[in-house]
Design brief:
The structure holds two protein chains of two kinds. Chain A is an alpha+beta fold. Chain A is built from 13 helices and 34 strands. In chain A, strands 11-10-16-7-8-15-12-13 form an eight-stranded antiparallel beta sheet. Chain A has a six-stranded mixed beta sheet with strand order 2-3-1-4-5-6, sandwiched between helices. In chain A, strands 22, 23, 24, 25, 26 and 27 form a six-stranded antiparallel beta sheet that branches. Classes of the chains: A alpha+beta, B alpha/beta.
Amino acid sequence: MSTDHIRNFCIIAHIDHGKSTLADRLLEETHTLSKKQMKNQVLDSMDLERERGITIKSHPIQMHYTHTDGQDYILNLIDTPGHVDFSYEVSRSLAACEGALLLVDAAQGVEAQTVSNTYLAIDSGLVVIPVINKIDLPSARVDEVTDQLVELMGCDPDDVVLTSAKSGAGIQEIFNAIVDRIPPPKNNDNAPLRAMIFDSMYDNYKGAIPYVRIIDGVLKPGTKARFFAHDNVYDITEVGHFVLKQIKAEELRSGDVGYVLANIRDVDDVRPGDTLTTKENPAAEPLPGYKQMQPMVFSGLYPSESDDYEQLRTALNKLRLNDASLIFEPETSEALGFGFRCGFLGLLHMEIVQERLEREFNLELVTTAPNVRYQLILRDGTEVEVHTPADMPETGRIQDIKEPFVSAEIITPKEYIGNLMKLCQRKRGIYINTDYLTKDKAQLHYDLPLAEIIFDFYDKLKSVSRGYASLDYTFTDFRIGDLKKLDILINGEPVDALSIITHSVDAFQRGQALCSKLKELIPRQMFEVPIQASLGAKIISRTTVKALRKNVTAKCYGGDITRKRKLWEKQKKGKKRMKKIGKVEIPQEALLAVLQIGSD
Amino acid sequence: MTRAGIYLHFPFCKVKCIYCDFYSIADREDDIFRFVQALIKEIDLCELDTSQWMFDTIFIGGGTPSLLEPIHLEMILNALHKKFDLSAVDEWSLEANPGEAPLERLQAFRELGINRLSIGIQSLEPGLLKFLTRIHNVEQVFNTFEHARTAGFDNINCDLIFNIPGQTMDIWQRDVKRIVELKPEHISAYSLTVESGTDLNKLVQQNKVTIPDDDYSAELYKWIQEYLSSAGYTQYEISNWSKPGKECRQNLHYWQIDPYLAFGPSAHGFDGKNRYNNYQGLDRYFQLIESGKLPIENYYPVSQKEMTNDLIGFGLRTNRGVQINRIPNEYRIQIPEKWSSYLINENGWIRLSEEGFIFADAIVVDLMV
């Protein structure tokens, strides 16, 4: 089919605004699959994706569509992850399209992530078609949401398509808009091959499989694949399209979306954003926009049962095959034993990895409170990067600590502006400006330390806005901050896993919170146990777990002594999981409670 | 011959106390005779091989067994005599509540051979008795004790409870002293514990009642340890004190992991290898026995490891401790450094020091195999 009859597009939508339902409807209307084959929300293939109503991976799918004028079209829908953690992947998916459907829930209106992805799409030169979904909801506010879209995109109210993906209303208008308003890809078949990798998957038999959009040239089996991000060369054995499974094709031409089989064993060789060309006739320049992905959030993952360490390593390796943005290195903690320090794109990414490890690999995990990466400038002039507070050099050697900042936008009904500004202030935010999407809906811009965002910002944001405000952010730069390493000492011994890096202003309060939480959780020992928080040599908070006075139950058990024995056996089992810090025995649960909450 | 005991459970009470988690029921007194008949039948149905045992103790607990008519007790004892060789039994215990054991009945019990009486006194403070939903008053405590002496009981136990909300150190000391003045042969002091399924538990869950903390209960406990010791009582178990030779040997059977038979709803027994327990509900108990079946709910072997842990755990709660040569060969008791000053290893026994008693649970957990 000529490139004139190809349309490559994606759907931009906030969680729960109906993206998957709309995708399902398009697949059904184009007979890509029958009603019978249709499982709800076909595109989200992981259980986790379906459950959470989010897309983690980009799924391309090809549809054959006969337009009202009788002409046949190929519509490639490239489903994109909706979450800020995956914004780089979103940008790569956008780069594979000429157009985007901007799907907004008629009751919820425009939300922060929608805004940033819309601008990303407009900046990438895509034609954006605004679509209001769920117009049949009783709470639908079509006029108001139309106003928001007009304000957001500067479009004409008539450009807005109204639909209910659920009932099917307005679906034909969406097809019309895709065919009439999204331009076909340019035909560059004669240029040397440049295929943009926008995602990949790993198959145990076929290796890493790049998902590509051909920008220039023709991709054929039998040629040798070359990449710009590294020097490894692979023999291309098969190319094809995705319908619901991989459908083999003779070639992929410019404008096509498809997959490439080249028996690539190393997942690192297929990096989203990289350009694939051929060894025989290489392109001179890669496509623009490739970035090496940098994990922003780090946390320690430890098996609850130390015997599971090797299993955890295997599981992480397997996950990484499908998720090159996950990084990990072995880490030992006095308190938690052997585990891994893992780097994630963001909090959601972290949660997803953790959940997949627990579900798909049946592991019980201990996850330490997340922290960001820090750049340190030492007094001797050297620069080091630190991914865990435990690695922080002693205070005397540190000249400056730099922490990552993000540019954040918060969309909110205007009545919560005051609360949100107070929150941002408290979280060390730097105010940039306020825009109004409509007279009732505002967009606040702040620069914020990422560390504050991953601490508890999101929960607080939701609570001060009664759930109405939404947040999006992108990493901007590292900035020097008045940051300190806060150590926790139990019975005089520093506990590596409990150290945190905190802003000076918060140090006292966080030290106190950690100490009193620990006091609550550490069982009484045969001796008094001081718990202290320190900044360098300075103790800023102190509390004491009093010595145990009594541990015996003077109860009448009668002839039924088995219950008591079972209780002892249970305690014995719990003690096996006890961690020893110096002479102090601490139940694992106590450490976890402190580590996991990041001490509120 | 292995020394063994027999336990009989009499589940009837006039009122169920809020803290009690033994099986007992109120408002079923009309069923007492039916129960006695069932109990006799259960004794008769017993299939355990007791030929290698020598019974030396019998304990009738509850519930409130002092509600039994002497004629009923006689029928039960006759059934036991008919089934087992009781010639070596020299401790015949029965539990009584103050105000629920008139003199004539006590005299009749004594004549039937009961020679040890355990009186559920719990407290001498009216407000605390009320809180515990006990139905007796302080005067009845002294009357019942006196009646027991008059009836000829020379081995009497007084049960006391400490750590009751509102129980000050003064009240506790006064009560213990007044009891000691009565010169009972045996005193049990139990800490009020909140057991699931009790009304007390509900009250605690609803924050209507707060149990004093462990530090406070340690004070009360330490005081009674010292006081009873100075009054000539030996603490032979965590909660039990006696004059020399007046230990409750039925209870010692439980703690030394000796065999004991058990009859009555919810009763727990041990045949030396297997533990078993009867169904709890009275009606189910009736229905099974009256159709000729044993009312046993569970009967299961005790593994070597469990047996070892029973020996260690309950042995350490007594002043004799654990006899090392009773521990199966594949296990050893290891004493961690942190507890070495609380344990005494002497003449083949390991026992807790006086200071060790108060940490018994923590120590047991570390010594278990």
